[in-house]
Amino acid sequence: MNTIKFSSELGVNEGYNVDENGNETLGIEQVGKLLQDAQLKVQELTGIYVSTVVSGPNRTVYKTEWKCPVGGELTYNISSIANPAFTPSIEDWKIAALLVMNEMRSALKQTTVSVEFTDKNGIDFHYLNDDKAINNSIREINEVKSASKNIEDEIMSY
Prior knowledge:
Strand order of the largest sheet: 2-3-1-4-5
Structural class: alpha+beta
Number of helices: 3
Number of strands: 5
Strand content: 15-25%
Number of domains: 1
Shape: elongated
Radius of gyration: 17 Å
Distance between the termini: 24 Å
Order of helices and strands: EHEEHEEH
């Protein structure tokens, strides 16, 4: 059975918020609650529920000139695997997963989120930073879906 998985490392503190004691203000339970809200919203829109795993906390470290806090930004890894028993269309599942991650980006007031899809053909990378980016990603996935359908129709016509 063919399947696909996604992984995304998501920053959770808007503006790298910390409380007066220097502690991060958003924990894994709060991230999980926001994720459940995003999953349900996307399910209502698409009919597809994207179950996920949240792990962390982690630290993503990049240049302080790019506004990375000293010691790294608090992040959590969000991942999922499309269960073929419940996923009639991998492409539709990918779109739903991107919509979930875009909802999380918005809810957590993040400027960007990167999403990697991995399957037997390799890695498909999506960089979401605004509505245009999510629309472009959805269009690309739908083009692949359409091309696959055309190939399938040609094969079936023989």
